[in-house]
Structure of SgcJ/EcaC family oxidoreductase:
Amino acid sequence: MDRPEDAAAAFQAAWNAHDMAALGALIDKDATFVNRFGHYVRGVDEIVALHVPIHETIYRDSTLENELIDVDHIAEGAAVIHFWSRLSAGTAHPAGPHQVDTMILAVLTKKDGSWRIRALENVTLSNPRTGAAMLRDLGRP
């Protein structure tokens, strides 16, 4: 990635191609990752290993649609980004086709001329009173 702004689209492209090597190429070797269920892993190998089985099974026909919200350059070679992510699960998912919206926060660092994800956390949008998953209104924050 040439700029932090590229991360949302690059993550989307790797997911939609179900290309876990491409996903791994976006991630710093010592990165941390928290999925939407609160599962924490450290290191690119662990992050890829977390995603391989779901892309071979329940998410093999899923797609993501990411929308960058903002980029904050917090220091030379360091940035924080936020982006919306809509997961569209297909017929391979046990619950059948459905959508889930999440908010992703990622910290990116620049090394050797390219940007990599150093930390990423994914939070599912849900009703705080009931816990029921919610979809956001597209076009509105």
